[in-house]
Amino acid sequence: MDGKKLSWTVADAVDYKGFPADKSKTGGWIPAALILGIEICERLSTMGIAVNLVTYLGGVMHLPSAASANIVTDFMGTCFLLCLLGGFLADSFLGRYYTILISAIIQTLGTATLAVSTKLPQLRPPPCDGTKTCKEANGFQMGILYLALYLIALGTGGLKSSISGFGTDQFDDTDEKEKAKMAYFFNRFFFFISTGTLMAVTVLVYIQDEVGRSWAYGICSVSMLIAILLFVSGTKRYRYKKSMGSPVVQILQVIAAAIKKRKLELPQNVGLLYEDSSDHASRIEHTKQFQFLDKAAIVAEGDFQAHGAVSALNPWKLSSVTKVEEVKMMARLLPIWATTIIFWTTYAQMITFSVQQASTMERSIGSFQIPAGSLTVFFVAAILITLGVYDRLIMPLWKKWKGKQGFTNIQRMAIGLVLSILGMAAAALAERKRLAVAKAVGGDTTTLPISVFLLIPQFFLVGAGEAFIYTGQLDFFITKSPKGMKTMSTGLFLTTLSLGFFISSFLVSVVKRVTGNDGEGWLADNINYGRLDCFYGLLTILSIINFVAFLVCVIWYMPQKRKDFQKNGIVNGNLAEEKC
């Protein structure tokens, strides 16, 4: 009886009371679906705000175009940067369940505050009086707006860091049937992300423009509140994984120990370095790269502290070879990590300046007026079409030709970078044509006689690029990182999005200052009088330089993978990839 009971429990998971999780009563698709409901509402709120915020800042708050773009990119960058904080709290203190619950409540408060700020006349400047000069929002009005946005960013960071992990916790990866369900969960997770984004850039943006922003943001608040209630209703059905501690602490411990022992000489025999004798299965053999970190594994006086009759290791003074090698594995990812950031800088232009371009162009289809923010629907369309073509056409042909299951993760990242280059080049050409029309009819014309569909190529190319680089990056950072640092590596991936948005803000500020800070220059307050095509051209050149750097980093990375990873027997599945 006891043996039968044991077979129905999940070894590394507990139920809400702290007892071993019973497979028949916990986990599976129902709890996972309740978790995915939170993800839909998060995407609905975040993307619904981001893609149309620039028009609100310019048209209602009367901010210059460059300042509006920077507020949007800073908001999105902060959302992804706070994923690191959310992951740290989930791993070290709160656990994933409470991180999701608290973060969802915070985001609900943020969207409710945003609904109020867009409703009350006191929280926005008066409408323009028909002259060229409009009164900008004052400090108090912008302060309330910032409060709402960064409450949303804080909530989003906590949700993004934990939802996918808590969803996979509902499946036992040692059970073949549940492992298959877990793989299906990942597909559904990406589908739900796309669904939330699609609803945001169509339905929600339309409500913002035609009904009222306060109504749209109110819908976000109510939907998230309903999702929270559904999420809490599944408390007794969830499986909870015990926290293993934050990998950030391990990395800091290795670095601290190496710095403390920086003056010590490494032994000629690496066998003299400290290794944990209790866990043979997960050991990683020593490699020669980043030898400075090896000093953390030198045994010295004071590394062990006596606790009664037992001597305990001080992890801030001594680390095992395996822990040092795990940190080295993360360090090897950094060059490729750095060269994928620029893609998200180009992506940022699609939800800022490209939306501003759309707002000046002819957007009518019969009697229906397409909201400028809804042009980003071509992002979602590009992602879904690209993934469909890749799955149904490219992968079968590639398997017949090369005998492999599709492109490697590095190849996918490379394709994404190339598509972003083409997207920026297409954006520069489209803007050149738009500016020619603006010059011919007058820059103050509200709607230029040029179709907004001229912008489709740039949206579609960068969107297709996102389909490749997002899946490639996620696969790369998860499969190439140590087993105990999967959450950390996912956070590392999300920081590329964050830094991409922040670099966009930095570039906009620099270009604004260099080319003219008096309302003119490349990024004029009215884009009809600027040279946005030159800014897109600059991004094209930077993307080309970055792509060359990416190839150099890949060449540096690949031999290390061959020599170290395969030699040490830690290659599995996607780790053993062919050259890009």
Automatic annotation (TrEMBL):
The chain crosses the membrane at residues 71-90, 97-120, 140-159, 189-208, 214-234, 333-356, 368-390, 410-430, 450-470, 491-515, 535-558. GO terms for cellular component: membrane. Its main location: membrane. GO terms for molecular function: transmembrane transporter activity. Keywords: Membrane, Transmembrane, Transmembrane helix. PANTHER family: OLIGOPEPTIDE TRANSPORTER-RELATED (PTHR11654). This is Protein NRT1/ PTR FAMILY 6.2-like.
